[in-house]
Amino acid sequence: MSTARLSAKASESAHQIAIFDYVEIAARYGFEKADLHKETGTLKRGNVDYLTKALPMLNWFHAIPNGGARGDNARSRAIRGSQLKSEGVKKGVYDMFLPYPANGFHGLYIELKTPERRPKTARGIGGVSPEQKIFGSYANSSGYKAVVAYGADEAISVLKEYLRGRE
Questions:
Q1: What is the dihedral sign for C-alpha 62, 68, 72, 74?
Q2: In what order do the strands lie in the sheet with 145-150?
Q3: Whole-prediction pTM value?
Q4: What percent of the chain has pLDDT over 90?
Q5: Is the pLDDT assigned to residue 54 strictly greater than 80?
Q6: Range in 18-22, 61-65, 82-86, 160-164 the model is least confident about
Q7: Binning pLDDT at 50, 70 and 90, where does residue 70 land?
Q8: How far apart (Å, rounded) are the C-alpha atoms in residues 106 and 139?
Q9: What was the pLDDT predicted at 69?
């Protein structure tokens, strides 16, 4: 299935699935073929081979599960939320991380929002929580690149720009 079809649903989860589909193809074949796959869905994902990929650093691009529903009712959400907090989950940490230094940065954090949440004015918050603003400022001031992306296409563009010239 094409990345475009995967992200056609309006949910943040659908956009994130589309990003990771694209990244797996890009890691294996490079951005040019991943761009073709994004539109046509013609390439097949396969077994992970960490040594022979076009962009091996993308093998380590990963999600950070810090948000979302954690149960069917208030009680189960409270219990699961407490467990996750005890395990070290932090409110405000961005959704995805690439632990690869490039362009003077130590790594890349991406906070994903749906395109509909893009701020309509320069002063709009675009769905970014106060904790996410604090984390983004901290990451940027600590030598990381931290970006809020509105949809799969924008997140993929951020990744490509961050890794420009690495293919």
A1: positive
A2: 62-63, 96-98, 108-113, 145-150
A3: 0.84
A4: 49
A5: yes
A6: 82-86
A7: low
A8: 10
A9: 58
Q: How confident is the model at residue 7 (pLDDT cuts 50, 70, 90)?
A: low
The arithmetic mean of pLDDT across residues 96-124, rounded, is 92
* Cα(48)–Cα(52) distance, integer angstroms: 9
Six token digits for residue 150? 């509105």
Helix (H, G, I), strand (E, B) or coil at 72: coil
The enclosing H or E element of 162 equals helix 152-162
**Domain extents for the chain?**
3-162
Distance CA 147, CA 98 (A): 12
Helix (H) or strand (E) holding 35: helix 31-40
How far does Cα 48 stand from its chain's mean position? 19
Q: Which CATH number fits domain 3-162: 3.40.1350.10, 1.10.10.200, 3.40.50.2000, 3.40.190.10?
A: 3.40.1350.10
19-46: b (≥16 Cβ within 10 Å) or e: bbbbbbbbbbbebeebbebbeebebeee
